[in-house]
C-alpha cells in the first residue's frame, strides 16, 4: 500500500475518531470521515497488543492491507478510514478478514455501487 494512502499521524487518527462515524461487527471496528477533495481514500490500521504477539499482529495487518488492495477499485475515494482489529481476528485467515472488511464497507456505504 502506498504511503500516500496511509494514515500514520496520531493527530489524523484523532480527527477521524472525533469527527467521523463508526460501525462495528464482531471482528472489526471501522471509523470513517469524509474528506472532500481527496484523490484516494486513506487507511489507518490498529491492532492492539491484546490481539497477540508481534508476529500475529503483523500478520493481521498484512491481511487487512491486502484486503484493501483487492477491494481498491470499489471503495469511495474521498474518505479517511480507520480499521481496528478485535480479538477474533487472530484466528481468522485472509479470506475471512477480507469478507469482514467488505461487510463493514458495505454497511457504511463506502463501496461504489455497480
Note down, in words, how this protein is organized.
This protein has helices spanning about 10-20, 55-70, 95-105; strands at about 20-25, 30-35, 40-45, 80-85. By secondary structure, the chain is α+β, with helices and mostly antiparallel strands. Strands 1-2-4-3 form a four-stranded mixed β-sheet, with helices on both faces. Helix 2 crosses helix 3. The longest helix has 17 residues, at about 55-70. The mean pLDDT is about 90.
Q: What order do the helices and strands come in, and which of them pair?
A:
Elements: H1 10-19, E1 21-24, E2 28-34, E3 42-46, H2 54-70, E4 79-85, H3 94-107
Parallel strand pairs: 3-4
Antiparallel strand pairs: 1-2, 2-4
Structural class: alpha+beta
Strand order of the main beta sheet, please?
1-2-4-3
User: Which regions have little confidence, pLDDT < 50, spanning 5+ residues?
Assistant: none
Strand content: 15-25%
Structure annotation, total helices: 3
